Every structure is written in structure tokens, then in C-alpha cells.
User: Fold this.
Amino acid sequence: MLHKPVNFLELIGGGKVPEVLVGTWIVMAILLVFGFFARRALMRAADPIVPDPKPGLRSIAEATVEWMDGFVHDVLELHGYRLLVPFFGSLFLFILSANFFGLIPGMEPPTSDSDLTFALGVVCFVYFIVAGFRSQGVIGYLHNDLVGPIWWLFFLMIPINFADIIFRPFSLGIRLYANMFADHTVLSMFTALVYLVVPILFYALGAIFCIIQAIIFVVLAMAYVRLSTAHSAH
Assistant:
């Protein structure tokens, strides 16, 4: 007989606050605390430009920022890409932390709730639309992304391109939600059936899966920004 695992998020919220909201608050608090102490360590350094040879919050933060800078550059390949690093870096760290949150016994990953994943998709949707407006102008963006190069086929291309753009946030949200929900469900089932050795293997696979899903979401979001600024990238 399977025992229902303890859900600490439900206990914290008293059954009245949605679990996804409690989990999101906790993940946000962890990231804010990490950022605060990492910044304080950087400000206390004798020379902030010189990397810290000792392992600590500052070195972890510096390595993360350096990796994200290279990651965004390699995917976008745009001039001024560093202006986009804060957004995509924050997005990646939040999704990754939310995914890993589900590996803690008694916790539900916020990204296994469709409300959060769709909200993230909408945020990315607004972001790449605004990026397109800024790079091409409103008229230029609407012409290039909706009408296309062959203007006399506008009656055919506008509905197709409009549906493609509108579906993007739903695609992002559904993909992340479905994968994280399935991963957490499988992990919960097998850890409830077997208590030794096997759960370790599934936790290891779950950790890899969490990283992959965070990368996929951010890469797709960056691809949409790349598409919305393609006509002004060079």
C-alpha cells in the first residue's frame, strides 16, 4: 500500500494558499538571499575586478554570470547581447531553482504547475515582442513578422504568422509544465515503492532532467528574441 507523501507546501500555506505560490515565494526568497550575500561579498573585496581564488558565494556568482554571458552570446549572436543577459540569466536561474526545488522530499516544483509555466511563457512573449519593436520599430516589426517579404500574399501570411506568434507562449508553458509534472510524478511513484538505492538513481536522473528543461526553455525564449530582431541583427 502506497503512503501519500507529506506535502510541506500545503502545510506552509495552511491549505488556503496555492502550493505553486508558496513554492514560488520560497524559490524567489532563496535567489534574493543568494544575490544579496554574493553582492555583499563582491563589494567587500579589495579589488572587485580580480576574481576570488577561494570558493564561496562570490566565486559561484561570478562563474554563473560568466557562463550565462557566454551562453546568451552563443545562442543570440547579436550586437549588444549583454543587455539581454540579465533577463535570460534571471529566467534561467529561476526555472532551474524551481525545478530543483521538486527534488527536495515533501516539496512540489513550482514549474509542475501550469499557472506558473504559462505566466513565464507570457513574460517571454511580451519580452520578445518589445525587443522586436525596439529593434525594428512597430511598423517594421509588424511588416516583417506578420506580412512577410511578399506583400501581395498578406491575406494568407498574416493569419499564419499571427497564429505562429500567439502560440509561442503556450508552447513554452505546455512543454515545461508537462515535462516537470511527469518527472515529479515518476520520481514520487518510484521513491514511494522503493526506499533504497533506486531513489538515488532517479534523483540523479531528475537533476539532469531539471537542468535540461531549464536550458531548453531559455534557448527557445532566446530563439524567439532572435527571430523578432533578425531583420536588424546585422
Summary: Residues 103 and 204 are 10 Å apart (CA to CA). The chain has a mean pLDDT of 83. The chain is about 75% helix and 0% strand. The chain has one domain: 8-232.
